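Hi Y.,

Following your request, here is the sequence exactly as I used it, all 471 residues.
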Amino acid sequence: MATSADSRRLSLPVVMAFASTALPIAAIGLVMGVYLPRFFAGQIGLSLAAVGGAFTIVRLLDMALDPLLGMAMDRTRSRLGRYRPWLILGAPIVMLAVYMLFMAQPGITELYLIGWLLVLYIGISILTLSQAAWAASLATDYHDRSRVYGVIQAVGVIGAILILLLPLAMGPKAAGAGGVHAMGWFCIFALPVTLALCTLITPERVNPETARDRVTLADYWALVKRPEMARLIFADLFMALGPGTTAALYLFFFHDARGYSAQQTGVLLVFFIAAGLLGSAFWGWLAQKIGKHRALITATLAYAVTQSALMLIPPATMALAIPGMMSVGFVSASFILIVRAMVADVADEVRLETGKERVGLLYALVTTTQKIGTAITVGISFTVLDVVGYNAAEGAVNTPAAIRGLEICYVFAPVIFVFFGGAAFIGWKLDAKRHGEIRRQLDERDALYDEAAIIESVSNRPATVTPAGGG
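Below is the corresponding structure, written out as tokens. Let me know if you'd prefer a different format.
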């Protein structure tokens, strides 16, 4: 018998406890994308090309690991659950890598940066994949998923805000490497606290599988070629390319091209991230009202307008830059939130048709596109800036041509990328009505599976359940 949507709706305390780990994960991600490249280029003394090359190499190496992690998670069956053990495993890996990178001293080599970046990205992959896959099995209703992933996004925004406020609160002590060191300690202490909240409070139900054959390369490519998944992978890649470009170039753009002080760039970033808190709530709500795919198309159009408008703001004008950055941050909050919720819907469809749990592998596909996007943006953007003669060193004076190249990369390239991402959802079929029917059939089959397991345990006779839609 189908379960009502109201009975599937998770309580807010459970959702908040589960989402808590997004706080340090988002904080680390923001520092990695915005502060670490400049830290290693400006404070540690590595060249722009070396830093860009290191991030690119690590992303290319790391992204091959995600599908393997996803497959391993989907096959995990333990007393702690399927995804909980992986979340616990990832925390110490991340904490160690954060210490080695955020506390780095001048004199390190590019090889040191590559090695510890790889460790950090592996740990982050474990944390993000296990949390995203766990969320898909935790929230099963089409609309409640928008709510749950919205809360995860909002908690992540809070983490990003806190990490941004930290150097501002430190004042002069945050100058140079001091701010990055403080951010590192914040993340190291926050991760185990939030991990305890999540793993001790959140329940985990392992979905039954009616087919238990091992995943093969053919299964992997079958998922990639599914029309819905192919669209999500394409869209996620281009939606990662847009904000990824702005993250890597943010400090350079606002400080060198637009004339804002280091403290003002920090303030602007706080407003940008804070607007994402409102954006997470709004886009989660809009997705429930008009459907996830329509909300994403709307968001991509809004992003083009808000991002382009940044060039109309006169340099060093905080009164206009603050609302400008808030509008971009408000819209940008929609991309990862809604795509992740849509992947969960596809995972339900896959499980109904095949009887196999593939949610971890499906999320690995989109996290891989995120990594490809950030690898492309950091590597290519830094290389382009190097070619046009942009100098990232502290106190360097850049030519007008170098500044113009920086502005074009920061403002207009992301708009083009995000437009392509939004176009992928034209004609999307897996809406609330279709997903409701999928969940109804899954709930009925899962109930039969549970009943068969009881009969088998009592009678010692095997009982099977045939998956709907094929074997």
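The mean pLDDT is 83.

Thanks again,
Q.
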